[in-house]
Amino acid sequence: MAVLQLGAIFLLNLLTSRAIAAISYEGYKVYEVVPENLEQLRFLHEFSENPKYDFWKSSRNVGTVSHVMVPPEEQGYFELLLTHNGFVSFKISVPNVESVILQEKLERSMARSLNTGQVTFNSFMTYEEHVAYVRRIAQDYPEITTMETIGQSHEGRDIPLLYISSGPNETSVPKPLIILDAGIHCREWIAPTVTLYIINQLVENSTNAALLQNVDWAIVPNLNPDGYEYTQRNNRLWRKNRQTATGSSCIGTDLNRNFGYMWMFDGASDDPCSDTHAGTAAFSEPETSALRNWILAHNENARLYLAFHSYGKMILFPWGYAPIYTDNAEELKHLGTLAANAIAASSTIGSAYEVENSAIFLYAAAGAADDWAMGEAGIELSYTVELPAGDAPHSFMIPARQILPVVQETFEGIRIFHQYIEEKFWTNATEVD
Fold first, then answer.
1. Are 389 and 398 in contact (CB under 8 A)?
2. Is 386 an active-site residue?
3. Which of 85, 142, 294, 311 is the most exposed place for a label (fewest CB within 10 A)?
4. 293-330 burial, b for 16+ CB within 10 Å, e for fewer?
5. Which helix (H) or strand (E) holds 310?
6. Which residue in the list 386, 409, 423, 431 is annotated as catalytic?
7. Tens digits of residue pLDDT in 180-190
8. Are 361 and 340 in contact (CB under 8 A)?
């Protein structure tokens, strides 16, 4: 036991010394703030535009919590503002963010060393490991998988897509296509991991062969590889991509504000230093352009789009640019609820998803991928899935021990989405045909 403790202390000291070159969150605190009236809610929403404060979660209405990370030099002022505006329901949920990050680094260092092409759901993998696994899958299962590179990131990293199909059906009805992506917000590490598990189950688990029979799948595990690598090496809480904005020293665009449907309508920023910076124009970023180009070239039979994010246990559907329901909102709510119920029934960590229109339930966020997938690409069923946070107060830094429960329960929701798409767009169509 003593040897293990000494080893852990040595690793922690090593990680601490290596973290000198990385951005430190020593002394940063996360506050839980609950607005009790509309004035306080508006105050928080306006305050969230200040780049000094990182809103990990924003209150969607009165009585719901905001999680706000505040640097040491701003904490006194922040608490004074809260008191001045009548907030009584606020507390510190994370006393020191850096200690949580170091603990996560320690767990990753002690977890495992993967051989090339392997996958694990006991710890978080690197971008290179993501790509190696997808490449190995395509090599080992060429009869049902094809790996494509849909583009490169700003720093030149490949953005892989895995196409999974059992081949054409012997009918005149084309197979419907389900498109999934993850990692747009790079600090949300659980999201790419979920898509890798979906690949694992669709391809390597033969008991799921029926999920490929009448439905094709296109999966992009990591749409923001530069940002993901940056979170692993430099700044764990980075959100955007890594392209410097024209005319500014600030880096990064929020890729989920950069899609070209109602771009910059509301809930996005033209400030390059903001975490919700929408870019200089719609599709100004190579990552969003790559996904757009691929989808527009393959959207003829695309019937479902799922974007995975974290955190919040929510299944959100368009429109996100404004609190407006789509014409098929009832169907979107129905299908999302079916998937949420399946997740809840299988969950071992108490995951209970809420299903609702994005802007009405949460907040306006124009330029999001799910809005574009429906509004421009014509994919009639489109969602953003906000995965669980795990043990509070980790939030984005979900503990490694909870990776497997999250990916397993999420796949049960995927089964429901598949069943619905198969029945509506293939089974029913072939019966009519």
1. yes
2. yes
3. 142
4. ebbeebbeebbbbbbbbbbbbbbbbbbbbbeebbebbe
5. strand 302-310
6. 386
7. 999 999 999 99
8. no
